């Protein structure tokens, strides 16, 4: 679609520090992003500036230095750890005679490689097209009419106008399909809400160990790797939490500092699981020196998708990489679990995690003793057995069953609704 240089896998990386930036992007994170994209780094060019240059983003001298490095290393692509304007991208390509990619384009490329499901591929394509639409202006070198010459001149569309129209049509088509997917997800959520099944959503900075934790808890076998954005498509599994019962656990895409807005918008259907969760399990890499900044970055994205008011349990993961950390639960002033220290990879503290989930999800528990007549024993005992709430039972001489039960209030209310007044007749004061 573009009259632009072909991109390869041999890259020169560019990282500029700006004086006014309070949270500078780590160079190591940028290198991990490049590695995750399967690109081979030939050389890294760094520098400092007060503000971006309007023409080349970097200064003219630095731009020429990068061009010289490209020629000497025979690089096929230059990747910037910053967002470039379409004009800056084109000016740099013209100077360096190779493809130039910015941070947003790099993340989009990684997402395109990781997408596995139909929905994931549609979301990535939508984000790519939205990113591309701002770059159409300088994408073509032949902006004349499509047809020219004697007998063919006319007021037809330019090639650029045709491209824009086709792009708009494709975006509309993708949005229609994603709307259908969103409705299907909404039906699933409504069904879970009707059954009052709590939902846990794993959130966290990319590469914090969410998928490893997900696999440890569910034995789902989800792809997990020490790389950024290893998970893209959401995975849902049912787990059992003591005193709560069945709970749906969702593994979601990892967040990153300066996550492109187009990506957040495109992945709205996926992130809806996070918005409507009963509890967010915020997984943090405890061994990362910048874990506090990573927590802030995740909270920013949660605010952007209106999920910042959902109750959150912080899980400090990868404690096996620390010298003095042990599995433990930290509580707030009211005694509620606030932080759990675990290692999903080394299987440390998983029992404490479940203990914390039980306390955060169970809410009010109901305990009572029932005296069930012989005619209703089979039916009622079966229901209590399915709810796994029986703590003690014994038969009386007249054939009645005395049974002690303990279950979450939601299950109790649901049972009362189904059984009506009959259940009340069995309760012993």
Automatic annotation (TrEMBL):
<dbReference type="InterPro" id="IPR045498">
    <property type="entry name" value="HflX_C"/>
</dbReference>
<keyword id="KW-0963">Cytoplasm</keyword>
<feature type="binding site">
    <location>
        <begin position="204"/>
        <end position="211"/>
    </location>
    <ligand>
        <name>GTP</name>
    </ligand>
</feature>
<dbReference type="InterPro" id="IPR035647">
    <property type="entry name" value="EFG_III/V"/>
</dbReference>
<dbReference type="Pfam" id="PF16360">
    <property type="entry name" value="GTP-bdg_M"/>
</dbReference>
<dbReference type="GO" id="GO:0043022">
    <property type="term" value="F:ribosome binding"/>
</dbReference>
<dbReference type="GO" id="GO:0005737">
    <property type="term" value="C:cytoplasm"/>
</dbReference>
<dbReference type="InterPro" id="IPR027417">
    <property type="entry name" value="P-loop_NTPase"/>
</dbReference>
<dbReference type="InterPro" id="IPR016496">
    <property type="entry name" value="GTPase_HflX"/>
</dbReference>
<feature type="domain" description="Hflx-type G">
    <location>
        <begin position="198"/>
        <end position="365"/>
    </location>
</feature>
<feature type="binding site">
    <location>
        <begin position="251"/>
        <end position="254"/>
    </location>
    <ligand>
        <name>GTP</name>
    </ligand>
</feature>
<dbReference type="InterPro" id="IPR006073">
    <property type="entry name" value="GTP-bd"/>
</dbReference>
<keyword id="KW-0547">Nucleotide-binding</keyword>
<dbReference type="GO" id="GO:0003924">
    <property type="term" value="F:GTPase activity"/>
</dbReference>
<dbReference type="GO" id="GO:0046872">
    <property type="term" value="F:metal ion binding"/>
</dbReference>
<feature type="binding site">
    <location>
        <begin position="317"/>
        <end position="320"/>
    </location>
    <ligand>
        <name>GTP</name>
    </ligand>
</feature>
<dbReference type="GO" id="GO:0097216">
    <property type="term" value="F:guanosine tetraphosphate binding"/>
</dbReference>
<dbReference type="InterPro" id="IPR025121">
    <property type="entry name" value="GTPase_HflX_N"/>
</dbReference>
<comment type="function">
    <text>GTPase that associates with the 50S ribosomal subunit and may have a role during protein synthesis or ribosome biogenesis.</text>
</comment>
<protein>
    <recommendedName>
        <fullName>GTPase HflX</fullName>
    </recommendedName>
</protein>
<dbReference type="InterPro" id="IPR042108">
    <property type="entry name" value="GTPase_HflX_N_sf"/>
</dbReference>
<dbReference type="InterPro" id="IPR030394">
    <property type="entry name" value="G_HFLX_dom"/>
</dbReference>
<feature type="binding site">
    <location>
        <begin position="343"/>
        <end position="345"/>
    </location>
    <ligand>
        <name>GTP</name>
    </ligand>
</feature>
<keyword id="KW-0342">GTP-binding</keyword>
<feature type="binding site">
    <location>
        <position position="211"/>
    </location>
    <ligand>
        <name>Mg(2+)</name>
    </ligand>
</feature>
<feature type="binding site">
    <location>
        <position position="231"/>
    </location>
    <ligand>
        <name>Mg(2+)</name>
    </ligand>
</feature>
<dbReference type="Pfam" id="PF19275">
    <property type="entry name" value="HflX_C"/>
</dbReference>
<keyword id="KW-0460">Magnesium</keyword>
<dbReference type="InterPro" id="IPR032305">
    <property type="entry name" value="GTP-bd_M"/>
</dbReference>
<dbReference type="GO" id="GO:0005525">
    <property type="term" value="F:GTP binding"/>
</dbReference>
<dbReference type="Pfam" id="PF01926">
    <property type="entry name" value="MMR_HSR1"/>
</dbReference>
<comment type="subunit">
    <text>Monomer. Associates with the 50S ribosomal subunit.</text>
</comment>
<dbReference type="Pfam" id="PF13167">
    <property type="entry name" value="GTP-bdg_N"/>
</dbReference>
<comment type="similarity">
    <text>Belongs to the TRAFAC class OBG-HflX-like GTPase superfamily. HflX GTPase family.</text>
</comment>
<feature type="binding site">
    <location>
        <begin position="229"/>
        <end position="233"/>
    </location>
    <ligand>
        <name>GTP</name>
    </ligand>
</feature>
<keyword id="KW-0479">Metal-binding</keyword>
